[in-house]
Amino acid sequence: MGITDVLSLFGGLALFLYGMQMMSTGLEAAAGNKMKSILEKLTSNRVKGVLVGAAITAVIQSSSATTVMVVGFVNSGLMTLKQAVWIIMGANIGTTITGQLIALDIGAIAPLFAIVGVAVMMFVKNEKVHHISSIFAGLGILFMGMDMMGAAMEPLQDSQAFINLMTKFSNPLIGILVGAVFTAIIQSSSASVGILQALAATGLVPLSSAVYVLFGQNIGTCITAVLASIGMKVNAKRTTIIHLMFNIIGTFIFTIVCMTTPYVSLIESLTPGDPVAQIANAHTIFNIATTLILLPFGTNMAEFATKVLPDSKKEEDEELRLKYIRPFESSYAIGHSAVAVSQVRDEVMRMQEMVSKNISDAFDTLIKYDEKARTKVTEREEYIDYLNKGISEYVVSLMASEMSMDDSRKINGYYAIISNLERIGDHAVNIAEYADDMKKWDLKFSDNVLEELAEMKKQCIASLDNVKDVDAGNVEKVLGQAVAMEQKTDDMRDKYFKKQMQRLKKGKCKPQSGIVFSEILTDFERMGDHVLNIAQEYRGME
Q1: Do 337 and 328 contact (CB within 8 A), yes or no?
Q2: 133 found inside a domain
């Protein structure tokens, strides 16, 4: 095997993986934003869940891509752990389609898929058609890569050293280990199965050895999901445990079957003289049979994963951190948009809750000065500024990625919302600082003013609560209420300002107190303006 063959082998592998990436990206752009609703509708029971997982994986030719998507969805709360079990089972079935297509030898027409797909991408301007054509182009490139790898391996038939190496695969432990390690390195079971089929086609690997490598490949493909779950919440990590359990249990069962029964001979008899099809059939039977065996125990697998990784009983630390946003960096983009939007939404809601608490504490400090509450306002404002910076940076990074128009609109909307929340937080701090001034100057508000301050607090909290749980079904109602509330805020400001002028004329309050109260009214009114801006942004996101 010369340097040209080695380059052809790796070049073919590169084309295979690039084709898979094209298919993943195309599917993400075409349907990524709809993936959440699709999964919610079609994972109501285990059979539907398995079928959905199989269908998605069959389209994108990668169980790793599907599993990584599921890990991201579980981490973001878009999918439950039990729903994830069925999708993972289905993904293992769907990934076998690659091997079956290779066995059908559609490599001859693969260039046609690539040509048509690329041509449509170049000359058709319709965005959706463009994305769908990239899926077909990716499929063609994928199989062209397979043909290159197969051609590059043909000289290995004459290599005695390589033949001797292949014979060692007959040892189940070595075969499983080699399959797992190789697949973990290239992070694609479809690619490693394809390479195994190419080796088998040359007669270098008999089926009796190939089956053990095949079992190991199913374990090795879990590494992608494991890597994707690093830094994520505990439920995401449990998802990877379920994926590992599925393939390890299946490998254990089928290794015993292969060693104690004529299973290999039976597979060979289905397609005599066609080692490529034999490997494809062995791969398909392994995953279908394992799914059927484990399907009744899916709930038990989820419970076991929960026991292995229990919820932490420790209270959350107070250090500055993003709680929900976990950068979802993976070569597999499927579902990234839905995950990212969900993460940003949850983090924005967290920021809004902090702003609401600061408003409450700031007004309470004015009404009755509390050193502890005043300190909390300062500490919380620091956290709010941190969240504003962290969310903004993440949102800006998302703007540079390929997203659907709907998801881009939502991300842009959240960017504007956090800016308004940060400004509301600043006004809350202003109010707390007025309380400091009142204490320093030994000033006190009358009972009437204190009642007015309590009403302002109530109005601010109610306005923010109104924009708390916005969705497509209530956005118009929320906006209408926000407009009414903003008008009420303006009316309250005018009313309280007139009352304050009357108190000043009658000498019922000190001029310094009057100045502070006027400044408070200004901050109160501006907070109302920013809340209305938030409601309008939500309206624009739908």
Answers
A1: no
A2: no
Q: Can you give the three-state secondary structure of 259-327, one letter per residue? A: HHCCHHHHHHHHCCCCHHHHHHHHHHHHHHHHHHHHHHHHHHHHHHHHHHCCCCCCCCCCCCCCCCCCC
Supply the pLDDT for residue 317.
44
Residues 156, 162 contacting (CB under 8 angstroms) = yes
For helices 234-260 and 81-94, what crossing angle results, to 10°?
40
Is 249 buried (19+), middle (13-18) or exposed (0-12) by CB count in 10 A?
middle
Residue with tokens 């309050």: 509
Give the pair of three-digit tokens for residue 439: 């204490």
What is the domain count for the chain? 2
Mean pLDDT of 264-272: 90
DSSP-derived secondary structure letter, 170: G
- pLDDT higher at 50 or 153: 50
Same domain, 403 and 482: yes
> How does 263-298 read in b/e, with b if 16+ C-beta sit within 10 Å?
bbeebbeeeeebbbbbbbbbbbbbbeebbeebeeeb
The tokens for 126 are 């319709």
Q: Which range of residues forms the domain containing residue 391?
A: 336-541
User: Using 50, 70 and 90 to split pLDDT, how confident is the model at 63?
Assistant: confident
Q: Quote the CA–CA distance of 97 and 178 in Å, as a whole number.
A: 22
